[in-house]
C-alpha cells in the first residue's frame, strides 16, 4: 500500500493532452482519491477548468501558484498590482501580442485573440476545437483596468524577454510548453509566485508533510513543484532540466501514463467513488 497522502497533478501534458483527459486518467484520479488527496496543480486559472472540475479533486493550485483552494475554501488569490497590470497590458498591446489575462473568475483577451490563438495552436499541431472552448475566453477592447493573476502569450512578434524588460520590475517570464512555442509564446507572471508555494500552502492546510506528497508534471513551471514533493515524477520527453530533479518518469497522457503510475504505486487499489 502506498504511503502517499497527497498527489499534485499538472494539467496540460500530464493529466491531459491538447485539453483532453483520457478516460483512463479520469478513472485513475477517482480511484486514487480513495487512498490520497488529489489536487490539480496547473498554470491555468480556475476559470479555465470548468469542464475538468467534475472529474473530482480535493483541491486546486491554479495560476501557477497564485490561487489555492482546498475542500472549497480559498486560501490564496494573488493578482498583479493595478499599476503593474495596466503597464503589462500597455506593453502587450503596443507589440500586438496575442495574449490572455487569466483570473480565477474570468479569462480576458483583446479583440481577435481567439482566432490568433487558434492559428497558433494549429501551427503546433494542436486541435483548437478541443482546447479553446474550455478556456471561456472573453474578448474586450479595454483591458488596462482588468484584474488578473497571470498572462499567457501565444503569438508574440518580439521575444518575451523584451516584453518583460519594457514592462519593468515586478514580472518574470517562462517559455511556452506548446510544440514549437518557445520562440513566440510563454507566460508573464509575478516572480515570487510558483507552483510549489501554492502546493506548500495547500499541504499545510491538509496537514500533509512534503515527504508524503507526490507531484507530477511535464513543464518548466513544474520544476519547483517536483523539488518540493517527496516523490517528483516527470513525464517522459519533458525538458532535461525537469527530468534531472525527478525521482522517476511516467508515460505521457497518450499512453495513459497516470493510470500506469498510480497502479504501480498502489493508489488505485480501491473502487472509484461516485461523483
Secondary structure blueprint with pairings:
Elements: E1 6-9, H1 23-32, E2 37-41, E3 59-62, E4 67-70, E5 73-77, H2 82-94, E6 98-102, E7 107-109, H3 113-123, H4 128-131, E8 137-139, E9 150-155, H5 160-167, E10 172-175, E11 186-189, H6 195-206, E12 213-217, H7 223-228, E13 231-235, H8 240-245, E14 248-250, H9 257-264
Parallel strand pairs: 1-2, 1-12, 2-3, 7-8, 12-13, 13-14
Antiparallel strand pairs: 3-4, 4-5, 6-7, 6-9, 9-11, 10-11
Structural class: alpha/beta
Helix content bin: 25-40%
Low-confidence stretches: none
Number of helices: 9
**Overall pLDDT score:** 92
Proportion in β-strands: 15-25%
The Rg value, from CA coordinates, equals: 18 Å
Overall geometric form: globular
How far apart, in Å, are the first and last alpha carbons?
24 Å
Supply the CATH superfamily name of the largest domain.
Answer: HAD superfamily/HAD-like
Protein name: Hydroxymethylpyrimidine pyrophosphatase
Organism: Propionibacterium cyclohexanicum
GO molecular function, one term: phosphatase activity
InterPro entries: HAD-like_sf, HAD_sf
Task: Explain what you see.
With 275 residues, the chain is of the alpha/beta class. The protein folds into two domains: 6-77 and 193-264, Rossmann fold; 82-189, 2-Layer Sandwich (Hypothetical Protein, Haloacid Dehalogenase-like Hydrolase, Chain: A, domain 2), CATH 3.30.1240.10. The protein is 28% helix and 22% strand. Strand 6 (98-102) and strand 7 form a beta hairpin. The radius of gyration is 18 Å and the shape is globular. It comes from Propionibacterium cyclohexanicum. GO terms for molecular function: magnesium ion binding; phosphatase activity. This is Hydroxymethylpyrimidine pyrophosphatase. InterPro entries: HAD-like_sf, HAD_sf.
